[in-house]
């Protein structure tokens, strides 16, 4: 294990930012801390980096107890959401900073910085000031700067949060490839479930200061531990007292065991997918996600009476309260 | 006067150096910028350049020899030397202490912070002669501390420190407020100690504001009259400041001498401001 967190609690005044956090981050992996804003994930990252302190509990980095160590001595590379570029220094000097203050020989610094600039594809922009770089370029510079001192772990706090959608996607793929090349233990914070599912080997879902579930993207998606995790990782809908994914629902045209009779209230085409909104007799309104081919094959029309049942392999959790749903991930209600 | 013709020349000229030239190769100003520039130059000419030109022309009215004689009398040399020295000392102290005060006001929370915020500006608000009276009642012969600074150079420096206190504080403060904390955190996680982070990251960022505050302090100290005149006791060759000396020359019907000393002070001020600017550029580059 590269990072071991044990029994960490942190209060901001009377607000419990983190509650009883135990976490093991495997060496060499790419781990995501995923959760809604204000859920404590950035606080946990900052505590690991030594930029914040836990009220109780311990932090171990690469087998060393780091709880009392200042950030300078934790061997941690940190990348901030808003780049934290040294504005008065060129790209090259930014990247060289950590090596220069360690008083490494000039030749060694130059060689290492050249390598890193090549790694992050900024060799052409080495002499520019941060103000002359785009957001994506600045973030790559920040990453090279953090990697320059060969940290044991790399921590990224919403690294792509300030970038526009297109650049975010490119950098995401690029981070994945970079990690395959560099293999430094990486822990990154995101509130974007797509980003976590796409990039991470392991996802840690954090909500209201607690860890909800830890697992691979597939585990979390297919076997969510609870309602929150299920809802946070993608669209869900309620079907007969259970929460299922709208693409895991089968529409059949006759009554079968376990199927719920509903009336199609609306058919909505969104690009390649068709959303069928329905109403059941108990007043619930499950919706189903189909491909255009499936919808055409069924010959669905609004007002039609059909039966819904979850696929045999569908992930499902029992519904307790509907109020937890973050609206962005829940789809049409 | 040469000044006015120069104003006319400046207006149509391509002044904005950083601007890319228009495709046809000529540099152009939009109508708005042209008007703005025109008004700015005219304003500056009337308020600053014109009086300076008048001053210079008075100083050299009787030729360069008269100017040289006026600024090399023993009394002139002593007063200019003392004034410039005191101003430099005050500027250096302000650059350090003012930055420190600004830092504390921005970064620390303490009881009474709001009150301190107000107190900082009092030297600005107080008529300088009142400041002089206050200082003399505190540090004069009847002062409560038993310290008599009247007629001493230390007293003059104290008065100058008092009236120039807010300059550096007020110019550094907003820059520190705007400075993102994550930049310092980034430096720390890269292994930089607090001192290294201050020297290589924070200082280059705030250096321009320290310099501009220091420049204002220096300028103010160089020309200060009201707060100094009482505590200095105007002792010739010891505590006489140049503004008092200039006043004395004017009162003794020597306008050329007064203008000459003033021009020399002006030259000193320009040199110091240029040096300060160079220093700031060096700090910013070094990082």
UniProtKB/TrEMBL annotation, chain A:
Task: Write down the superkingdom of origin.
Answer: Bacteria
Enzyme group, top EC level?
translocase
Q: Where is the ABC transporter domain?
A: 3-233
- The UniProt record lists the EC number as 7.6.2.9
Alphabetical list of InterPro entries matching this protein: AAA+_ATPase, ABC_SmlMolc_Importer, ABC_transporter-like_ATP-bd, ABC_transporter-like_CS, Mo/tungstate-bd_C_term_dom, P-loop_NTPase, Sulph_transpt1, TOBE-like
Q: For this protein, what is any one GO molecular function term?
A: ABC-type sulfate transporter activity
Q: Name one GO cellular component term.
A: ATP-binding cassette (ABC) transporter complex
Any idea which UniProt keywords this protein has? ATP-binding, Cell membrane, Membrane, Nucleotide-binding, Sulfate transport, Translocase, Transport
Q: What is this protein called in UniProt?
A: ABC-type quaternary amine transporter
What's the name of its gene?
cysA
TrEMBL record, chain B:
- Membrane-crossing residue ranges in chain numbering: 34-60, 80-106, 118-139, 145-169, 209-236, 256-276
Q: Where is this region: Disordered?
A: 1-27
Q: Per UniProt, what is the membrane topology? A: Multi-pass membrane protein
Keywords of the record, alphabetical order, are: Membrane, Sulfate transport, Transmembrane, Transmembrane helix, Transport
**Could you name the Gene Ontology cellular component terms for this entry?**
plasma membrane
Respond yes or no to whether keyword Membrane is given for this record.
yes
Q: Which InterPro entries match?
A: CysT_permease, MetI-like, MetI-like_sf, Sulph_transpt2
NCBIfam families reported in the protein's UniProt record: 3a0106s02 (TIGR00969), permease_CysT (TIGR02139)
Q: Tell me the function of this protein.
A: Part of the ABC transporter complex CysAWTP (TC 3.A.1.6.1) involved in sulfate/thiosulfate import. Probably responsible for the translocation of the substrate across the membrane.
Query: What do we know about how this protein assembles, alone or with others?
Result: The complex is composed of two ATP-binding proteins (CysA), two transmembrane proteins (CysT and CysW) and a solute-binding protein (CysP).
The record's family statement is: Belongs to the binding-protein-dependent transport system permease family. CysTW subfamily.
UniProt protein name: Sulfate transport system permease protein CysT
Organism of derivation = Cellulomonas algicola
